[in-house]
TrEMBL record:
Protein name (database record): Pyruvate dehydrogenase E2 component (Dihydrolipoamide acetyltransferase)
Signal as UniProt keyword: no
Organism: Prauserella shujinwangii
Domain Lipoyl-binding: 5-80
GO molecular function, one term: transferase activity
SUPFAM superfamilies reported for this sequence: alpha/beta-Hydrolases, Single hybrid motif
One Pfam family, short name: Biotin_lipoyl
Length: 370
């Protein structure tokens, strides 16, 4: 195949994704695209996302149809310069279609997983990329490394990107000790030490935002910058009902109404997402971990954390990203930041900015690292 013809493949967003379904082609055949342009909306078993182009040129051929179930790694479209002959495009499209229909698709490798031991606890992580620059992604309360499924891959272009499971979450040990911010920050710093990472950019969501802030203040030499996504511990407002509801739910029926608070569009909450969270909540030790961490997050109906003084001490670049429709930690909390005017407000996003509007977060993080 002509090297000028670039394949657009079904991405692997997260460890468990094996296929996806295109719900809409944003770009039509014959239209020019640039690196980073939105190409298509894709539905996974967890949530819908937008696929960006990794190449510039013309969308010469759409290979996969709307609503067709496509395995990860299969070619769904072809991008090439306008001067590539149609005959070559047709032959490449024919081969791609044959591969798709035969099912003989080489699946994308996806993240490499591993564990380290910190303070006697096993911490799980997933890694993409092999660049010298290192980014570490830290999820929020009740989340895990898979919550970064839409941003880890694009961030790994030229970088090494680790997504970490905090104690009590994902595949990490469920022992959270006293559940304090210092304990969780120690887990992040211990991960860096165990992996031999001398310096990293830390990105933290919600509780993870507070955790990476504490880590940066505790060991500033290891932290190059902070990107905080709807960080906990900033401002006076918190949706205590959501946090308690998440911790106390014992069935999918009880859990799903609370999950709607995470997204600007509650329809983003799929049955699969709720089922996966219930499987996690039923693991031994999770109930105790979540209740312990609830005490770290809440003092009655008010926030128990205040990381604003820590941010004032942090002598490193800090960027804050917040969804305009956040119903868990409202964007009005940003007024408590040392520099509230520097906040990137993402319109149409709720608390899960990195899942609802991942391209906006990727753009902020990538711009900051240049």
């Amino acid at each position: 195949m002509n090297d000028a013809i670039r394949k657009v493949v079904m991405p692997k967003w997260g460890l468990s994704m094996t296929s996806g379904k295109i719900t809409e082609w944003i770009v039509a055949e014959g239209e020019e695209v640039s690196d980073g342009d939105d190409l298509a909306e894709i539905d996974t078993d967890k949530i819908a996302g937008t696929l960006e182009s990794a190449d510039a040129g013309v969308l010469r051929r759409v290979v996969a149809d709307v609503n067709e179930d496509v395995p990860v790694g299969a070619t769904i479209a072809l991008i090439a310069p306008a001067d590539v002959p149609d005959s070559e495009i047709e032959e490449a499209a024919r081969l791609a279609r044959e591969e798709l229909e035969s099912g003989a698709v080489e699946e994308a490798a996806g993240p490499v997983t591993g564990t380290v031991t910190v303070d006697g606890r096993s911490l799980a992580y997933a890694t993409l990329g092999d660049g010298a620059e290192v980014v570490v992604l830290v999820h929020g309360y009740g989340g895990d490394k898979n919550s970064w499924l839409f941003v880890q891959e694009p961030l790994a272009d030229g970088r090494t990107v680790h997504a970490l499971d905090l104690p009590g979450h994902g595949e990490s040990a469920k022992d959270v000790g006293d559940g304090s911010l210092d304990t969780l920050a120690g887990a992040v710093l211990g991960f860096l030490e165990q992996r031999g990472i001398e310096r990293a950019h830390l990105v933290g969501h919600s509780l993870g935002g507070a955790v990476v802030t504490a880590a940066a203040v505790a060991d500033p030499a290891r932290v190059a910058s902070l990107t905080l996504v709807a960080p906990a511990g900033v401002g006076p407002d918190v949706n205590a009902e959501y946090l308690r509801g998440f911790a106390e739910a014992t069935s999918r029926r009880e859990l799903k109404p609370h999950l709607g608070a995470l997204f600007a569009d509650p329809a983003q909450v799929t049955r699969q997402l709720a089922d996966d969270l219930m499987k996690y909540k039923r693991l031994d030790g999770v109930d105790k971990a979540l209740r312990t961490l609830l005490g770290t997050l809440l003092d009655g109906d008010a926030p128990a954390l205040d990381v604003v003084p820590l941010l004032a001490k942090a002598e490193l670049p800090v960027t804050v990203v917040w969804g305009s429709d956040d119903a868990v930690l409202p964007v009005s909390n940003a007024r408590s930041l040392p520099d509230p005017d520097a906040v990137h407000v993402v319109e149409g996003a709720g608390h899960m900015v990195h899942m609802e509007k991942p391209n906006a977060l990727v753009a902020v993080v990538s711009e900051k690292r240049r």
